[in-house]
Amino acid sequence: MGKRNITLKELAAVLSLSPATISLALDGKGETYRIAAETRRRIEETANRLGYRPNHLARSMRRGKTDTIGVVFPDVSEAYMNRILAGIEAVALERGVSVMIATSSLDSSAEARNLDTLMDRSIDGLLLVPYAPFRGEAYKNDAVRRAMESVIPSVCIDRYLPGITTHAVIGADREAARLAAERLIAAGCRRPAYLGFDLAITTLVERRRGFNDAIKAAGLTGSSDEKLLTERNPDSPDIREWLTELTAAQRLPDGFLVSTDGLALKLRSLLRKLSPAGRGSRRSGTRRKRPLIARFGEDSPYFPTGMISVRQPHEELGRRATEKLFALIAGEVIPKEKQIEIIDMEIIDETQHH
Amino acid sequence: MGKRNITLKELAAVLSLSPATISLALDGKGETYRIAAETRRRIEETANRLGYRPNHLARSMRRGKTDTIGVVFPDVSEAYMNRILAGIEAVALERGVSVMIATSSLDSSAEARNLDTLMDRSIDGLLLVPYAPFRGEAYKNDAVRRAMESVIPSVCIDRYLPGITTHAVIGADREAARLAAERLIAAGCRRPAYLGFDLAITTLVERRRGFNDAIKAAGLTGSSDEKLLTERNPDSPDIREWLTELTAAQRLPDGFLVSTDGLALKLRSLLRKLSPAGRGSRRSGTRRKRPLIARFGEDSPYFPTGMISVRQPHEELGRRATEKLFALIAGEVIPKEKQIEIIDMEIIDETQHH
DNA sequence: GTGAAAGCGCTAACAT
DNA sequence: ATGTTAGCGCTTTCAC
Question: What is the model's pTM?
Answer without folding.
Answer: 0.89
